[in-house]
User: What shape does this take?
Amino acid sequence: MVNALPPGGARAVARCDELGVAPYSDMSGGLYRGYLSPAYAATLDRLGEWMAQAGMTVRRDAAANLIGRFEGAKPDAPALMIGSHIDSVRDGGRYDGPLGIMLGIECVDALRREGKTLPFAIEVYGFGDEEGSRFPAAMLTSRAVAGLLEPEALDIADSADTALADAGVDVARYLEAGRGKAEMLAYLEAHIEQGPVLEDEGLAVGTVTGIAAQLRYAVTVKGTAGHAGTTAMRLRSDALAGAAAMILAVEQEAREDKSDVVATVGSIEARPGAANVIPGDVRFTIDVRSGDAARRDRVAEQILQRIAEIAKARDVECAVDRIHDLPPSPCDPKLMELMDAATEDAGHPPFRLVSGAGHDAMNMAALGPTAMLFIRCKGGVSHNPAEHVEPADADAALRVMLAFIDRLAKDWKSSNAC
Ligand code: HGY
Ligand code: MN
Ligand code: MN
Assistant: This one.
């Protein structure tokens, strides 16, 4: 039983495993936890129990984020916020997101058991929507907390046409989840690397230098639906064949740039979706990233140009909507130094690496300095049920986080002379 496990990294991993199956997953035989889904609701309850057991007061904000608070000596001091996301991709791994929340809970539990009171509070955030796996907008809830969300961004519906407004939140009050800069001392997110670098280096943990810039588009291609048996090839306006040519162009433009730019078409839907009907309506997404916004934008422009040329040549209509534009998010230099020192305190060599994956830290940077700690994951595999993290590596991360908190508290005390 998870609760029988002693506190630490192994318990954090085991709790992620417990949340990897029903009732905390919306899919049988794997993990999908959509924002505001029944599995999400069950997860909020279970996480809330663990937060309370660790000595935190627990609340939900207007965006249905879960927040545990562990008071410090000065209640009005800005809090150290430690967080990550509760939701998952479809058929995803168990640790992408939840592990960062569990390690935040383990940090607080350790401080409570040692009877330690910090000068500032710790708030552990479970963000509801980071993946954008249910609604067509990623990082909705940390953008709400960071004050980066416009009200019109809430006018969205999932693929079953359930509007966010009907999914269990009051959109009229959603932005009340926002926090002020004065409330946050720093934001710390521990996350599996989702890449192979730490494993290749033989390291358990690494200090993140920054998060890549991210553009995301929704593309709609309209042709003419028709009978697959009676419509001659020269008379077709096939939306799916057109989309296929566009998708190959996406890959080609990113590959030929020979830089850190990556471009992905991760989802496609062909309508009406029958074997004997020429598709007349196709929708797909494009995700373009780079550590440098200008490089990202240049390749994105080339991709959009190619798509327009293909649509014209094939006589299909094409509409491109930008879903989000996330600038690169550098981690705070001072906090990176602190993380390196804490890594050494915990007996590990400091190592720095960039994040190609997006994280809620990108948005929390609008409120103050951010730090991220990466944890080795097997084969760098993620967004896949084969995702795996060793309990010993989670434990190493916990020790680094506790050393980081210790150093941050000492710094705070010396600069606030209390
Ligand atoms: O897409 C990402 O990079 C993150 O996993 N949501
Ligand atoms: Mn994640
Ligand atoms: Mn993810």
User: Anything to note?
Assistant: DSSP finds ten helices and 16 strands in the chain. The domain at 213-326 is CATH 3.30.70.360 (Alpha-Beta Plaits). The longest strand covers residues 213-222.
